[in-house]
Predict the structure.
Amino acid sequence: MGGLIACAILSGRVLGPIAALPGLIVQWAHARAALDSLEKVFALQGDNHAVALPLTPEHIHGEWRIENLKFAYPGRPRPLTLPLTLIRPGEKVAILGPIGAGKSTLLKLMAGLFAPGEGQVLLDGLDIQQIDRAHLSARLGYLPQDVKLLAGTLRDNLTLGLGGVDEAALLDASRRIGLDQLIASHPQGLDMPIFEGGNGVSGGQKQLIALTRLLLSTPAAWLLDEPTAAMDEATEQRSLAVLRQAIAPEQTLILVTHKPVLLGLVDRFIVLLPGGGVIDGPKATVLERLRQSAAQARTSQDMHSGKPEETP
Ligand SMILES: Nc1ncnc2c1ncn2[C@@H]1O[C@H](COP(=O)(O)OP(=O)(O)OP(=O)(O)O)[C@@H](O)[C@H]1O
Ligand SMILES: [Mg+2]
């Protein structure tokens, strides 16, 4: 009996680790997958990639010089190309063109968010890729076309990355832009919850939140990508008036828009043409050139269709 009991105990001891093996194998697979994902994150290029000592210029004057720019998304054959382009401090420029022409891409390159494949984007004479990313983000007022908010409260999203914004300034900026209606309509006011990506607020409200944050950040230069695309007419007019007041004459504005009402903010157009060309010049000159080429296109169309030339 004693021998049998000893056998049962000993065999249990011997087989125990073997029985634990399947569980260990599953744990090992999970640990391996987690390590692989971490390695992928660490292998990604960081900001200021390959720049040993990023620059932190004290002032941003807002002079852009784009030299023979070429940029293509991976797997996309047609690159965005731009010849030598100079934007002087204080200039108010609109980047125009049909959908998919590359306007947002150009603005991201000018904000230093993308590195050009060929050529250079210089800000105040410095390669924008060499300027410290956090330093640049704090000084350039870049408003993306697709505003993304973070999970947290409305207050968190309005003051994200901005130090020392007091409640009075926050409420004043919200009132000027018209965000106070959203704040007043929620029982938690500025502490209303916002979910990841901006779920929980409308597209127009997301743009108002992003614009309010931009006003609070008091940028040195403005890069606005369709700032009022999701707004109704009254809200757009209000935002336009606030922008007109906020953008100082000495500050550079680069505006991407499809909305004619916003073009009053600018004096110069850079038009990205569908074929890859660019028309750049004062507003009136570019409008005249566009009118002429539209008239020429109409005439040649009429000739091909056999209609008389004077057909409107
Ligand atoms: N992340 C991306 N990856 C691959 N291709 C992209 C990406 N983003 C944009 N593209 C492509 O690059 C081209 C230019 O896109 P971009 O967003 O700059 O156009 P856009 O002029 O701003 O258009 P819209 O007026 O519609 O905003 C488009 O053909 C688009 O399909
Ligand atoms: Mg765009």
Remarks:
- Residues 73, 76, 97, 99-105, 145 surround adenosine-5'-triphosphate (ligand 1) (CB under 6 Å).
- The radius of gyration is 28 Å.
- The domain at 64-292 is CATH 3.40.50.300 (Rossmann fold).
- Residues 186 and 192 are 7 Å apart (CA to CA).
